[in-house]
Design brief:
The complex is a heterodimer of chains A (about 160) and B (about 350).
Chain A: E1 2-3, H1 6-14, E2 26-39, E3 45-50, E4 60-69, E5 76-83, E6 88-90, E7 98-101, E8 115-117, E9 123-125, E10 133-137, E11 147-156
Antiparallel strand pairs in A: 2-3, 2-4, 4-11, 5-10, 6-11, 7-10, 8-9
Chain B: E1 2-4, H1 11-16, E2 34-45, E3 48-49, E4 56-61, E5 64-66, E6 68-72, E7 78-80, E8 87-95, E9 101-109, E10 126-132, E11 146-147, E12 150-154, E13 159-167, E14 177-188, E15 212-214, E16 228-237, E17 242-252, E18 268-277, E19 283-291, E20 296-298, E21 304-307, E22 309-310, E23 313-314, E24 319-320, E25 323-325, E26 328-336, E27 341-350
Parallel strand pairs in B: 5-15, 7-16
Antiparallel strand pairs in B: 2-3, 2-4, 6-8, 8-13, 9-12, 9-14, 10-11, 10-13, 14-16, 17-18, 18-27, 19-26, 20-27, 21-24, 21-27, 22-23, 25-26
Classes of the chains: A mainly beta (about 160), B mainly beta (about 350).
């Protein structure tokens, strides 16, 4: 399921001389899993994660992003951004360091601080399904060799 | 591949609490469409922006979730009279799949059992047909609505109104019930004006392409996850039941006048024919005939129609009408409501 667009990446790096050329010093990978809750005969529910081969509207998705600093230097101003696919309704993240946007990435904040403009000019508090982007902006540099994992949840619309 | 939920650091316990809050989804994302997630990363080293690594991309295909809802409209029985033609029950069919589908339709009749709105199914209607509400006004109109055996290319989340139209046999008593069940079954969409092939659930391992999953609940006559759904409605007969009572009162005789008049030659007798409707529906055009006894002579112009009774006593009221010919009194009462009694009154003299 993972597509690595290495050809695009090399073209990009060659055409961007202003950026430092230390390719692959950090890496970012992602996985999407479908979360299913099954209830056994004793009424105990069990949660399993499956590869997204069988996905229908209403299914719960878990998005996992894995980053790693392979370089020799700390990576600062470390920002991971994930626009929500339009067919996925954001269902939150337990990660309090994440900020979200409900306007395509123009304004960022925690969900409770964001508002949506109604057609009549009034505003209402943003809901999780309004989220268009999620972003993690790390305050501290990622030390050399360190890796981490970020996650958020969504539902197939 | 199925794997146990692994622990995403401190995230997982809190995150699991969120799972219950599923948004209201009916059809949802179109079957066969792909969802692409694209995450990117920017960073600096020593205060200098670095070339970002390749974005992390995930692509998966949304499978086809077949779901539908058949529901009776109105939540009440259809009241019919014996012999009624084109009696209508109303249903709706909604395509809650995430794909455009055809839906095969069939109307079946219950055999016994408790009916949709109470009572026991004890007769079958005849000539059952299914019509689609062509002008979407919710009312069956013969000649306007379309006779159908399937619904063609029903859009995601779209609802159609369907009428089951049938004839009621004669000879049924008030309270007789006939239950009908409307069953809709999803079929392949894609070709207009032709009912598509039967849907097949993807068997075996899931594929990376579009799979088909049946997600419907059980209806009244179909099972869970069978691409079908059904609901029931019924016809309840309500008819008039008429009973006749004839009474005679001596009004006067030539010797006693109107006081304690006796049935002697020359006496005037007032006959009262009371028609009681003990059924559940009004009886209309109730024609009453009464052959006069040979020993009596009709008093011209004495017929009163549509009079009332008080208890069993004839009030001898009403409006003039009716006719007398060939020794027979006739009169027609336009309508006798359910549980009402109306009378025909006339007078005759004893020969």
């Amino acid at each position: 399921m993972k597509l690595t667009i290495s050809a695009v990446f090399f073209a990009l790096s060659l055409s961007s001389p202003s950026l430092a050329q230390n390719a692959n010093a950090v890496s970012l990978n992602s996985d999407v899993m479908v979360e299913r809750t099954t209830t056994d005969a004793n009424g105990r529910s069990q949660v399993t994660l499956e590869e997204p081969r069988m996905v229908v509207p209403g299914d719960h998705l878990v998005f996992v992003l894995r980053y790693r600093n392979n370089g020799a230097q700390p990576a600062g101003s470390f920002v991971v951004t994930n626009p929500l696919p339009s067919a996925v309704a954001f269902q939150g993240t337990a990660d309090t360091s994440a900020t979200v946007s409900v306007d395509g990435g123009r304004n960022w904040g925690t969900l409770s601080t964001l508002e949506i403009s109604n057609q009549d000019g009034t505003k209402r508090p943003a809901r999780s399904e309004d989220v268009t982007h999620i972003r993690w902006a790390f305050a501290q540099p990622i030390p050399a060799g360190q890796a981490g994992r970020l996650m958020f949840r969504g539902i197939v619309r | 591949m199925t794997s146990k939920l692994y622990n995403f650091g401190s995230c997982s316990v809190v995150a699991l609490a969120i799972v219950g809050a599923a948004p209201a989804l009916a059809g949802g994302t179109l079957a066969g469409s792909t969802i692409t997630n694209n995450a990117s990363l920017t960073y600096q080293v020593g205060g200098v922006a670095q070339t970002p690594p390749p974005p992390a991309v995930n692509v998966f295909t949304v499978d086809r979730k077949v779901n539908l809802t058949v529901a009776e409209s109105g939540a009440a029985t259809t009241t019919v009279v014996p012999g009624q033609s084109a009696a209508v029950t109303t249903f709706t069919l909604q395509n809650t799949s995430n794909a455009v589908l055809d839906f095969a339709l069939s109307a079946t009749q219950s055999v016994g059992g408790v009916s949709a709105h109470g009572g026991t199914d004890n007769f079958d209607v005849t000539g059952v047909q299914i019509f689609r509400d062509a002008n979407a006004n919710g009312t069956y109109e013969a000649g306007t609505d379309t006779l159908v055996t399937f619904i063609d290319e029903l859009a995601i989340d779209a609802t159609v109104t369907l009428f089951v139209v049938a004839n009621v046999p004669t000879g049924l008593a008030t309270g007789a019930v006939s239950e009908v069940n409307l069953v809709a079954t999803g079929r392949e969409g894609g070709t207009a004006a032709v009912q598509g092939a039967a849907l097949v659930q993807t068997a075996g391992a899931n594929t990376a392409g579009m799979d088909t999953v049946f997600a419907d609940v059980a209806g009244v006559t179909d099972g869970v996850r069978d691409a079908s759904h059904s609901d029931d409605d019924d016809y309840t007969v309500s008819t008039a039941t008429l009973g006749l009572t004839k009474t005679a009162v001596v009004i006067s005789d030539p010797l006693n006048g109107t006081t304690n008049a006796k049935m002697i030659p020359g006496a005037v007798v007032e006959y009262c024919i009371a028609v009681a409707n003990t059924g559940g529906a009004a009886a209309t055009s109730v024609a009453i005939t009464d052959v006069l006894p040979a020993q009596t002579t009709f008093v011209a112009g004495s017929i009163l129609l549509n009079g009332t009774t008080t208890g069993v006593t004839c009030n001898a009221d009403g409006v003039a009408g009716g006719a007398f010919a060939a020794g027979t009194v006739t009169g027609t009462i336009a309508s006798i409501a359910a549980a009402a009694t109306r009378t025909l009154v006339f007078r005759a003299t004893v020969n």
